[in-house]
Amino acid sequence: MTFSLTLSVSDLLLLLPELFLTAWLCVILIVDFSFKRIVQEQLAYLSILGLVITLACLAWFDVTGITGTLFGKMFVLDRMAIFFKVMILLATILVILLSIDYVHRFAFFRGEYYFLVVMSALGMMFMTSANDLLSLFVTLEFATFGFYVLVSYLRDDMASNEAGLKFFILGVFAAGLLAYGISLVYGETGKLVFSDMTGAAPTTGLVIGFLLIFAALGFKIGAVPFHSWIPDTYHGAPTPVTAFLSIAPKVAAFAILLRLFLVALATFKPAWALLIVATSILSMTYGNIVAIAQRNVKRLLAYSGIAQVGNVLIGLAAGTKMGTDSILFYLLTYLFANLGAFAVIMAISNAVGSDEIDDYKGLNRRSPFLAFAMLIFLLSLAGVPPLAGFIGKLYIFVAAIKEGLYILITVGLINIVVSMYYYLIVVKKMYINEPLDSSPIKTTGPLRAVIYVGLAGTLVIGIYPQPFLDWAVAATLMFSNLLGPAASIPVPVVPFGG
Amino acid sequence: MAEYTLLIILFAPFVGALALIFVSNRQLSLVRGIAAGSAFVSLIASVYLFYAYDPLKGGYQFIQRIEWSRQLGISLHLGVDGIGTPLVLASGILLFAGIFVSWHIKDRVKEFYIWILILAAATIGVFMSLDLFFLYFFYEMSVIPMYLLLGMWGSHTKKYLEMTDAEGLKQRDSVGFIFNFGANSKEYAAMKLVLFLSAFAVAALMGILLIYKFSGLNTFDILVLREQAHFSGPLATLIWLLIFFGFASIAPIWPLHSWSPVGHAAAPAATSMLHAGVLMKLGHFSIIRVAFEILPETTRELMPIAAVLCIFSIIYGGLVAYYAKDTKYVIGYSSSSHMGYVFLGMAALDYISLSGAVIYMFAHAMATGMLFAMAGWVYDQTHTRDIPSLGGLSNRMPFISAAFVIGCMASIGMPGTVNFIAEVMIIVGSWNKYPFQVVVAVLGIVLTMAYLFKMMRGLFYGSMAEKYSHSHDAVTVVDRMPLLIMITVSISFGIFPGHLYSVVRSGVDPLIARITKVVPVAEHPMNLPHATSPTVPTSASHEALAKVTPR
Which family does the record assign (chain B) (predicted)? Predict the structure, then answer.
């Protein structure tokens, strides 16, 4: 296999967002080192500026329809990659806004924090474009690398160190599994690029290889039974990092899962659908039931995140174009609700200094705005109309019922009720219980901005989802010829004129 | 303007709630004004809707269709038929009355009105949805406001073993609270209500998804599904059971009723009014709209289930209401007992009985709304709902006690109130098919008299404890108006039921004709004399009916 490394200008154009962000990363680092008087807020806004320019560049790609592959199909930029990249950039911008107040708690390396966040974002952007096993391995490790440092950023905090260590050991173990799986698959097929693998004979080695790769990716998204690092890491990590960890790596890993299962393994769908169904049922049930017992809101969201991943996997189990649309759409709704919830958590932890659910007592009297925002975000996570999460869940269920996954849908529906219980317990503390300390809670500008973005996203997508659905549908057009007739857009019959 | 009537009714409360977000809690009169104003707009529009609905034309009118999602085949498809129209009117009246009933709330007034407006708007949304998705959307949307209304402004119910009678002796624990595990806090009630309703709502959602898949039409539109979707065999049975029990839990049919009285007891007055008045009717209405419309054959085969369960609803609810000692438990259980009549009327699948059931829903909304409003007033004045410890309040509150008597009479079904017409129609209409249930229903009326008279005597007559001598009557316009509105509506439709009857018949006729495949021989509703004495329509068509009802 030879790579032609002569890049034309039009090839470089495809890499433009990543190249620009790499350059910007150097700028951030240089500015941090060279200007002694610079404060971390300015660095934060500098990072956001770079991310926004990248976002604009991607928006331009999306509108003009610039797509293509590079390096012998190792790197692919299609509409789906753009969708995922936009989500990751959006999440990163919101996370940096969340961080601005929190970074004061770090004793050292405040500037490098932003560098690491943007670097992880860059890694995940590459991840969404990974189209063969090698680039999968490299980009996944590149993206995780920054997180190892970020999770243990609170240097003197035991919980943070424990979280970092746990994340690192299990992460490296997952990387080992991934490398071993890749070697098995390559040994059996002699192919690295996903799209070349379709139709390979299902030998034992190949099956084991793919199972190992799935285990490594399952670790990234935190699906049961690969979830054991999630609660402690979420609990111990600095809260903005937890927020970042709870959405961005999952988004990126789902991009790879989609390419892997729907392109490389498209022909074995009946076999892997069973695997996904089992993982999904386990994740939803385990996540929701254990979440009931939580007393710490970060752990609650950790377990709720496990359950949400189970929900997203329903869309993957459906394995159709519509299933893919629903995954993209669901992740978008999850992004707004989840980051919004973390913004409220940070506002309260700034004022109260803890993340215990009991500290949310009487929040409605202390800060009606924060309580209302949290209510909206939690209900969206639970899937209550008219919020975005409801449409996301419904879309996934509709995609799944078209494929006849009745048991999976039944479990999913029951889990909605279970999850409602623990979300409502938080609502009860906020609205019904009386506050222990009735001093009002102040929120800072950046946090408020994140909450406003979260609220806007959750409500707008919930009430008028059509443009976002269209965007998700357009992003997955690549799957329409692969996967049957479900891709066609149905036009309901109008019974009478008006 | 007229074609936007439904949008005005639906969105006026939402707009009011949205406007309230930007008002400070300190501007109390502005907060109340916005709430009352938006409810008033909704009420006026629903009164217009009720009288502008053309029963001669029948079918779905005031249709609005806004494309919402192409991929999923969802549109915001609104329209009302003869069944939805009176229920929309009832919601409008109860929302407006509820705003004034809760005029004296002190804690977080703005939030209270926001949630009550959202609750009412969501229920109104269900009554006018012609799209399965939006039916579920509004249905589920009405549940969460209930949680907050119960939790934030509700009151704890006493443990029943601790309840004492006037002499301070412990009262016998009544059968209704066996399943309560001693938990009588408002948080418990609120959580039970939400989880119960959500659990059954997702069952209904499963039914809706199955309809969506197996119709193969890629649409949630009820009108399209009604014409083009055909279900048969075990699949139809499964869907029907999911839909029926999913929605019947909110109705609430025995044995799925246990959340309801607990919820009533914990809720503030206005919430109880909306809960018993319209929220419970969402169940019957959704069954009619989904199961009756889309699965007519299965409905014909399986509706006897409702006929069996309604016996238990009527008798069990009535007995518990007789033994309960908390005013709101009495009214709550009486509501679940009375909802059994609606199920009986629906189960008979007959032109007269189903019309009776729909009119009963409207009538019950008024009667139970009055009772809950006054139970709330008594609670506000005396801070207790324990009937044995109360008594003699008619000296202190003559207006309330007089209105309470009227409310009880309406609830029993005195001639002259609209409840009477509805009850007679249900009884007459289902006699051919379910004579045993009719006997039970008549016994249920006797039972209703027993517990309502018992409560009336316990609250307002007899000797009054000294500590209640400072309680006040409703004297201001604001306090009296909601009661007067409901009394007026109840009595005026009792005396002039013509338009209500013809509107309901225009909705019921095509439905029953589809299900039973029997053409109504009874005169067309418009041929009936316009404001006859209450018994004429029922007895006139009764003879005609005996000939056509399939045996």
Answer: Belongs to the complex I subunit 4 family.
